[in-house]
Design a protein that fits this description.
By secondary structure, the protein is α+β, with helices and mostly antiparallel strands. It has 11 helices and 9 strands. The strands form 2 sheets. Strands 1, 3, 4, 5, 6, 7 and 8 form a 7-stranded antiparallel sheet that branches.
């Protein structure tokens, strides 16, 4: 029986992106991974982590602009593969909602991996700890049969701010403060959304950066072309997602404000990292320069969309039409970026 806690864990924030007025890392999985690496003393390059993992290039949208879109993908295939391509070994333990017969053995496997990671000074990334997002298990208490956790907070309105007229201001900047708490061992993977997803980052795997770049570009092209998993027509990914988004900004009412900002922050932040990641690789692969410029255009346009939802009021009808036009232009620029990157890949 034991009690262990990884000391001094602080949720990762990309201060440089924040200073530029950009969203930073909205993906709770990638932010949790960055936090785990930072906690054990590793320097984090957010552009590399987002780019090499593929998350700088992903976009998933639902027809009614639901925030659920950000988690509609093949977790067991995408999550460990992305971390591996970014340069780290990992232990990944998963149980999906329909795998009831695996509940007990996978919970035991996950617990063993969590304990081993924490004993070595590495927090574990886990799904749905305090909110249905990825957070961190930073300690365990065998006597109390509970984990100490750190998780992102995604409340619709910061309780410290008064509601504005009508629907109220979507105060995400205050609502994104991380929360600390405890989760009973038995509740892991059994909370609001009954899926077990635990990732423990391991040591660097030594993958050459040239190989990681090639795989990242392959992931980006495959995602853009809709070749990654999604079984529901209501959700679209890659270039097709822009059509959903373009229509949704003109049809969703003000009560969708929170989800609209959340999604715009995800994908605008991602494209800022795509811009930076591709630009970094131009030093060794100058053929990527047109793709870097195209992603700069995508990032600028999506930042405009995010800023519209991150302001003091919900966009009016005229502004929604303008946002739709901006998204249409962003989609064209992204298609150009993908075409440039495809030319840099080896012939199959």
């Amino acid at each position: 029986m034991g009690v262990r806690l990884v000391p001094g864990v602080e949720w990762y924030v990309d201060r440089a992106a924040e200073a530029r007025g950009e969203p930073g890392i909205y993906s709770s999985f990638v932010a949790a991974v960055a936090t785990a690496l930072q906690a054990r003393g590793e320097a984090v390059d957010p552009a590399w982590l987002m780019g090499a993992s593929g998350w700088a290039f992903r976009i998933i949208m639902q027809a009614r602009m639901s925030a659920c879109a950000t988690r509609v993908f093949d977790w067991p295939r995408v999550l460990p593969a992305g971390l591996s391509n970014a340069g780290w070994q990992c232990v990944y333990v998963s149980r999906l909602w329909h795998e009831d017969e695996l509940r007990a053995p996978r919970l035991a496997e996950a617990h063993a991996a969590i304990v081993a990671g924490i004993d070595a000074g590495t927090p574990a990334v886990a799904w749905d700890l305090l909110t249905p997002e990825w957070g961190l298990i930073i300690g365990y208490d065998d006597d109390g049969q509970a984990y100490d956790v750190l998780a992102p907070n995604r409340s619709l309105v910061d309780p410290g701010e008064p509601l504005a007229a009508r629907w109220g201001r979507a105060a995400w900047r205050g609502g994104r403060r991380p929360m600390r708490g405890r989760v009973p061992y038995a509740q892991l993977g059994q909370r609001q959304i009954a899926i077990l997803s635990v990732t423990v980052p391991g040591e660097p795997n030594g993958r050459p950066r040239e190989e990681s770049l090639c795989r990242a570009l392959q992931m980006a092209v495959a995602h853009a072309e809709g070749k990654e998993w999604t079984k529901t027509p209501e959700y679209q990914l890659g270039l097709a997602a822009y059509a959903h988004w373009t229509r949704a900004v003109q049809t969703q009412p003000a009560r969708a404000w929170g989800d609209a900002e959340y999604l715009a922050g995800h994908w605008a932040g991602a494209r800022c990292y795509a811009r930076d990641f591709v630009a970094q690789q131009c030093e060794t692969c100058p053929q990527l320069e047109p793709a870097a410029r195209a992603y700069g255009q995508v990032a600028d346009r999506l930042l405009t969309v995010w800023q519209a939802y991150n302001g003091e009021r919900y966009p009016d009808e005229r502004e929604q039409e303008q946002l739709s036009d901006i998204l249409f232009d962003a989609a064209r620029s992204e298609a150009a970026a993908i075409a440039y990157m495809r030319r840099c890949l080896p012939m199959e």
